[in-house]
Amino acid sequence: MSDVINLDFDREARCGLPEAIFAEFKTPAQCAAIATQLLARLGYALFTRVTPAIRDALIARLPDAPRQERGRALLLGAPPPRPRLPGTLLIVAAGTSDLPVVEEAALTAEMAGARVETLTDVGVAGLHRLLAATEKLRSATVIIAVAGMEGALPSVVGGLTAAPVIAVPTGVGYGAAFNGVAALLAMLNSCAAGVAVMNIDNGFGAAAHAVKILRQLSPRDDR
Amino acid sequence: MSDVINLDFDREARCGLPEAIFAEFKTPAQCAAIATQLLARLGYALFTRVTPAIRDALIARLPDAPRQERGRALLLGAPPPRPRLPGTLLIVAAGTSDLPVVEEAALTAEMAGARVETLTDVGVAGLHRLLAATEKLRSATVIIAVAGMEGALPSVVGGLTAAPVIAVPTGVGYGAAFNGVAALLAMLNSCAAGVAVMNIDNGFGAAAHAVKILRQLSPRDDR
Amino acid sequence: MSDVINLDFDREARCGLPEAIFAEFKTPAQCAAIATQLLARLGYALFTRVTPAIRDALIARLPDAPRQERGRALLLGAPPPRPRLPGTLLIVAAGTSDLPVVEEAALTAEMAGARVETLTDVGVAGLHRLLAATEKLRSATVIIAVAGMEGALPSVVGGLTAAPVIAVPTGVGYGAAFNGVAALLAMLNSCAAGVAVMNIDNGFGAAAHAVKILRQLSPRDDR
Amino acid sequence: MSDVINLDFDREARCGLPEAIFAEFKTPAQCAAIATQLLARLGYALFTRVTPAIRDALIARLPDAPRQERGRALLLGAPPPRPRLPGTLLIVAAGTSDLPVVEEAALTAEMAGARVETLTDVGVAGLHRLLAATEKLRSATVIIAVAGMEGALPSVVGGLTAAPVIAVPTGVGYGAAFNGVAALLAMLNSCAAGVAVMNIDNGFGAAAHAVKILRQLSPRDDR
Amino acid sequence: MSDVINLDFDREARCGLPEAIFAEFKTPAQCAAIATQLLARLGYALFTRVTPAIRDALIARLPDAPRQERGRALLLGAPPPRPRLPGTLLIVAAGTSDLPVVEEAALTAEMAGARVETLTDVGVAGLHRLLAATEKLRSATVIIAVAGMEGALPSVVGGLTAAPVIAVPTGVGYGAAFNGVAALLAMLNSCAAGVAVMNIDNGFGAAAHAVKILRQLSPRDDR
Amino acid sequence: MSDVINLDFDREARCGLPEAIFAEFKTPAQCAAIATQLLARLGYALFTRVTPAIRDALIARLPDAPRQERGRALLLGAPPPRPRLPGTLLIVAAGTSDLPVVEEAALTAEMAGARVETLTDVGVAGLHRLLAATEKLRSATVIIAVAGMEGALPSVVGGLTAAPVIAVPTGVGYGAAFNGVAALLAMLNSCAAGVAVMNIDNGFGAAAHAVKILRQLSPRDDR
Amino acid sequence: MSDVINLDFDREARCGLPEAIFAEFKTPAQCAAIATQLLARLGYALFTRVTPAIRDALIARLPDAPRQERGRALLLGAPPPRPRLPGTLLIVAAGTSDLPVVEEAALTAEMAGARVETLTDVGVAGLHRLLAATEKLRSATVIIAVAGMEGALPSVVGGLTAAPVIAVPTGVGYGAAFNGVAALLAMLNSCAAGVAVMNIDNGFGAAAHAVKILRQLSPRDDR
Amino acid sequence: MSDVINLDFDREARCGLPEAIFAEFKTPAQCAAIATQLLARLGYALFTRVTPAIRDALIARLPDAPRQERGRALLLGAPPPRPRLPGTLLIVAAGTSDLPVVEEAALTAEMAGARVETLTDVGVAGLHRLLAATEKLRSATVIIAVAGMEGALPSVVGGLTAAPVIAVPTGVGYGAAFNGVAALLAMLNSCAAGVAVMNIDNGFGAAAHAVKILRQLSPRDDR
Predict the structure, then answer these.
(1) How many angstroms separate the CA of residue F122 from the nearest CA in chain H?
(2) Both E112 and E73 in a single domain?
(3) In a domain? residue E125
(4) Which of C182, E46, F211, H52 has the fewest other C-beta atoms within 10 Å?
(5) CB contact under 8 A, B162 and D15
(6) Cα gap C76→C71, rounded to integer Å
């Protein structure tokens, strides 16, 4: 069986997103090989859900590549400059423990040219913090709401703004949180109309959906 | 096998609550027999989770007993007057669909002597309705918060008041609501400290817990 | 306990969506009362997940109101004309059995002013049908992809277009489909970046998210 | 993205409980930063679900702060003296393995001014031990019942006393205990009326609910 | 495909139990055909989990056969007299709703020659009723303990006697009872050593296990 | 909170089984303290589900106590000699991976005075091995059948013998075995009448049930 | 939205199987429209999982079409004669209740030209019936094994023959059978190597897999 | 209890597959003993799901045996040469992370004499890669399709070819992938007719099913 890895270099052109590699289930050696190919071809390599062993292997193989680490995401090399996207992406999060997901989403969206703002530690058990930021919520073009435990933040946010809300459950919690399942179910059942949901801890995916929305605001010649 | 039903008539004396019969899994004939015994002994019979067939059987057997129907609860006869309990129980609910559970809880608590207030249609996707009632929330002695779907109401209520909050998930919702499981999990994982949770749709149990709390506020000679 | 229903008439102003009533867990009498209030106030009433008994009660109470039935959604009265939203919403569906969800989504989006196109019977086991419509997929502003069983359609669609994709699992299937859970999980784990997911059979919610996106394309003075 | 942590210092005033930090999903560095802020502002910092790495980081950062370790909870600094709350909280537990949850609950309640008694190793398979303490059960104002495995203790306790019972399932057990799910479900389905349930291993939350009850027994001027 | 039903007439000889037919998933016509064969061959036919349609079909086909209906079990014809088994089987049950399972077990065991006693309405929230029967519990040779909801009865019984205890969860309960799953899990995790568990509502199976135990007490020539 | 551990020394007298300590969730220090108490009082201490850390702590504390290690069970000291129980317990197991559970059951039963035989590596995919032992199966008084993966062994064994069968699922398997859940469900649904089931990996419990059965075969004066 | 149903008439040419329509989630009107199209185009229409309402609608619309009903499958019209496939398909089933699935599989395979044999009522609790057919098992080219409850049949069959085994779990059972989940998990974890599994009750799919295997035995010119 | 391991040396003759040992739940010592027996008897030993500790123990015990490691499978010794089987097995996989399962399947099939081809990195979000290989898909005799995450690959492959498709879900994914459950459910619900499914990560089993199919293409005298 051949060992050649068959990357999909055209995805960016086809779908308008930076290519990202889901690292967690690959061996360090596979990740290093992929990074080398991507850097040569695209000038950068973005890995999500990086384990310490994979991180070490990537740095050992490519010690000179510029790198940026945010949450569990690792960016090697320098992505090509992209035109600034219109509008603003606001990422709100319930607690400090949710920050790695916030960071993964922010890095991804920034790489794609989005203007990103964040608002953290605004869990629903202390509403005054969220309500104090109502103006910020209302002026965003699209919002990513990140929360673990009971996952109520997107419902409250969705009731305060007309912007599309993308909910990301996190694995924060214990016992009957079931590693994020409680938050996931809460978000899927939000009584705020139109909350769309991503997989648990999927900051990258939320950013991808947000960027696709922002890209639709740009004038496009081909339509 | 003998057919005699072995009721626990002392529970009220032992635990301070009206006796209630969980009707759903009993046959109409069993329910009618129990009602006859209870009316003779206690002067009333309270049934929860009454099906239409059971309701019809009870009325047919005891056509002259005064009755009160609230939600799926049915009270036959006249409970003895009880001393008014101190404090106030406030029952808040997210939506119109949650009302049967509110009614079961209110009937139970009122029978036990509690002063009951309600605040309904205050779901978290329209926070202004709940915030407008902040004063009411803060002046309650104990609060029952009832919600289906994402079950976020107890978390928000728990952050607005120092009163103990009893959360009751309801089966309202569809798909990934899993007949109340989503709301149940959300409530068990509330980021508001000290929210205690009842089984799905268990308005009776929430009222029982609330009444036991209110009873502790009374002077008791035997301690 | 008062019987007054406390509707949130401002939601449309606050969130930019037509008000819709989730009918399934309400009594026919509650639905009829709500419909009367809404027609008087807004000129229309939109109900989702309508049961036959509720449908009959609504028509009996409001026999003269114009009505439109699509899937399990029922629209009474005449919504006010809204400005046409920019862009196009494309709703794609895997099979004939998914049509009720497609119809609920289409009705909702059309009421909000969206231009809606549909593409049905394009399940992934017969790819030629979907591939033949690639141009249509690529020219849409936002796409709702509806599928039951293995729920693979959004992944395939997401790989063919740069538009944001909103996935709606349906309860179509049997056995290990678990009433839509298999499709829900598949969509949450889509390998196509940025697929956002709604609750099972939630056509209304998908349309709400899509409309919120389309609304961001319009020039808005207040930002 | 700014690194400032946005603590909710007013929660204690608003809800009447000591502030506690859920440590498990935070980095050691985040916990150390939070501890420093809390000690400066409140004079103490209470962490629950502390991992060894977090414990070491907290002690390294604040080596001179007085500390108290009970179960997986860690208290740094000296909480301000609080007035003694009326009544008694009794914590009962089924087995030796449940002690960490007992200790977390006891520490939390004592910090809030409660008089706490404990009764351990009273699992239901050896009823004589529990029955021997019936008087103690009956004289408590509020009871926390902690159990893993089949989680039957709260049902038996709830039948022996009129005090409100707060049930805490623990993760003790194996196989079909599913890390506390069996006990959680048993407690949610207790046939003893009015048993209220917390998340698995949530000793802190149980104490918070108990303290909120005890606080309602005090004369309050503002009502 | 031939329509001949291939019954295992030797099971009784091989395993020492009356043959029983699990009716629920068979068509009424299949059941009627099986009944006819069994009556001709064995003189009786025992059906468990009989639906009303199946019951009607059996009676219509075999109107003259003597019959006995207990719970959802139906016995047609007259089983051959069997020698009385040594010892006593005691069936205890938590509530009135559990009686159908008690009856299925009792009928099965009596058919096999066992001496059966019952003790019902002895749920653990009213311990005095169970404790009053301690002597009865201790004199039984084998005990079947039937309970729904939190399923705690077998744990308490198992701690009061040295007899082998067979636990049968029932579907009695609602919400997080999950049709008997809560009781099943509780029984599997019993802290009373040696409690063995049957499927939900499986009164027949419990009786079968009990009878196999009682048969081992008899002198057997054929070994 | 006092540190005294409240052991139930009378269980053996009450229930006829050696006392065993479920070690897994206790600290090594707790286990060592319990062992010391038990050795002083009973002359032996039996621990199940012993982790390496607990094993080391026990040996360090009681280096001179005789010990016997079988599977994950550890016996310290010398149990008092017991009268040989009548009959034979046969333990059958599907595969080599199931042996730790077999050993835990065998040790427990032997300590209680049972005559134990074993038959291993008789998985149902190679039936000839099991069929070759039919005589052994038929001559046993009671059988424990241990299996992981699809858990079919008890069904096949139950069809070959009239002895009571106790089924023990093990965690052997992967993926959809769900750590023994697949085997547990299979055993609960056995089509062989009267198979009784224990928790996953609960060899101790199976032996306890078996011993209780064997004890009923003995003449007892007190009945 | 257009009402045209977009059938995939080429599937048979592409995949070598008769077209079948999964009826259950379609409306009777949709099914009738599809039947008309298929009869006109292919000369037959095969529906699986037909409800009584759909069955009635199909017969009312197409009263003159020849029809064949087997299990829940309904064949209208006359499929074109196909060449007889090489080899033999043997369908084995555990019990009478599994027959509808057997019939659906047999009808599908026969329509595709397969030689089909059946062997029913061979559940593993009465092994002698299965062992008596060992020769038949060994001479089959491919085997479909159908079972509910504990789902052990495919494991036993897989150990007796070298033919590929396709396992079909059925929903037969109750309680912890979870509508076929127990059997499904057992089959996925079969210790007999190479057992492949279909969805619960999916007799059509099993036949499709079997027919695809048999087709590979034929000489094919076009490859 | 004797320590002799009772291997089923005849399985190969009976079922036509190389013997493989599922290593994961065995101790290193058990595996080493089995390897020694197998090498002496068969000349080779194939282990699947080998942990690092087991791998080390096997090499330490049998340092001179030739070995081949692929994915988590380890082959020691030299299997006897087998006749080449007719036809071709094609293994397709969605991503790089799925390669260990591909390798386990390829090694197993090659050992049994199959001609194996592979096609990897053909996930459905980049369809062009799969479509480019349509010819290869159509010329295969049997196909194994391996995928994690949403598990859509077998459905798409099944629509493109008439060969029997064997689906293998992998544990690749996170959050709501539930270690392969999402992919497993998707595959069980494939809308492509006749996709048969293996346990999560069961590359060995898929190869076994495929080999059994290929073996049926050979002329056999005994039919």
Answers:
(1) 8
(2) no
(3) yes
(4) H52
(5) yes
(6) 14
Asked if B6 and B63 sit in the same domain, the reply is yes
B3 pLDDT above the threshold of 80: no
First to last CA, chain B: 43
Angle, helices F181-188/G181-188, rounded to nearest 10 degrees = 130
Interface list for chain F against chain E, based on CB atoms closer than 8 Å: 11, 14-17, 20, 87, 138-139, 141-142, 158-166, 184, 188-189, 192-199, 204-213, 215-217, 223
Q: pLDDT class for G82, splitting at 50, 70, 90?
A: confident
Q: What does residue A206 show for φ and ψ, rounded to 5 degrees?
A: -60, -40
Same domain, B53 and B104: no
Q: What residues of chain D lie within 8 A of the CB of F16, using their CB?
A: none
- At residue A3, does pLDDT exceed 60? no
The C-alpha R_g of chain C, in whole angstroms, comes to: 18
Overall size of chain B counted in residues: 223
H39: CB partners within 8 A, 6+ apart: H45, H62, H65, H76, H77
| Helix A28-42 × helix A52-61 angle, to 10° | 50
Q: Which residue has the tokens 């074109």?
A: G80
> Is residue D193 domain-resident?
yes
Mean per-residue pLDDT over chain D, rounded:
92
Residues B113 and B60 in one domain: no
CATH number at residue B105: 3.40.50.1970
* Average pLDDT of span A112-137: 95
Strands (E), chain G: 20-22, 44-48, 67-70, 73-77, 89-93, 116-119, 142-147, 165-169, 196-197
B222 within domain boundaries: no
The side-by-side arrangement of strands in the sheet containing G44-48 is: G20-22, G44-48, G73-77, G67-70
Q: pTM, whole model, 2 decimals?
A: 0.96
The H-or-E segment that residue B117 falls in is strand B116-119
- The DSSP secondary-structure symbol of D182 reads H
Return the SS3 of F3: coil
Last residue of one domain, picked from the residues E42, E57, E77: E77
Question: Alpha-carbon distance G54 to G75, whole Å?
Answer: 13
Q: Are residues A100 and A207 in the same domain?
A: yes
> Residue E80: which residues within 8 A CB-CB, separation 6 or more?
E42, E43, E44
Looking at chain C, the number of H-run helices and the number of E-run strands are 9, 9
Nearest CA in chain A to H104: A1
Query: Would the ipTM clear 0.90, i.e. be above it?
Result: yes
pLDDT tens-digit profile of D109-158?
Answer: 999 999 999 999 999 998 999 999 999 999 999 999 999 999 999 999 99
- Residues listed for chain F: 223
Q: Give the residues of chain E that fall short of pLDDT 70.
A: 1-16, 219-223
- Domain of residue H100 covers 89-215
Domain termination site, one of E11, E43, E77: E77
Nearest CA in chain H to A178: H175
d(CA F59, CA F51): 12
Residue C189 has pLDDT above 60, yes or no: yes
Same domain, B19 and B126: no
